[in-house]
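Intended use. Records like the one below are meant for learning the mapping from a protein sequence to its folded structure. Do not use them to infer anything beyond what is encoded.
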Amino acid sequence: DSNTLFIGASDTSAIYEVNISNKSYKKLMDFTVANGLFYEDGILYAAQLGSTTQNMFDGKGKLYKIDLKDNNKLTQLGIFEGVLDGVTKVGNKVYVSDWGNAKKTGIIRVYDLKTKKESVLEAELFMGAADFWIDEKSKKVLDFGANSDKIIEVVVRARHAEYMRILLDFYKLS
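Structure written out for the chain above:
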């Protein structure tokens, strides 16, 4: 709903649920090196940056589905591992960015919820594989990282500013 924001806190290995309208929050669950999140219809898709807070960039982060309607039931999606960051879902596919070694080797991984097949989005490798958005109509991936063109940067800054405002409000509560 428009009153709820989920935040992955990598440093504390937790996912928080923030009620924007009444400015309250609660710890939803412990989740090792929580990073990118995507919510749809009672399901939260969550990416791990790495396997431990001591070594967040070890390349062993995994993608999970959290069923909020079934006592936060946790299910691993696929078997791939990486330095996982942004998550989005289009149709039956979940997309997750993977930093690789952060030297122009970033990729976007794809997990098909119906077929359970894993793949990598065919695109040029790029540095800073973090948050991204997929335009369903044009089938374009808009990366919010270092390789964005000027039009995308304007859109990103507006979205990023709103996100940062929400985060700052959240941290004022704690």
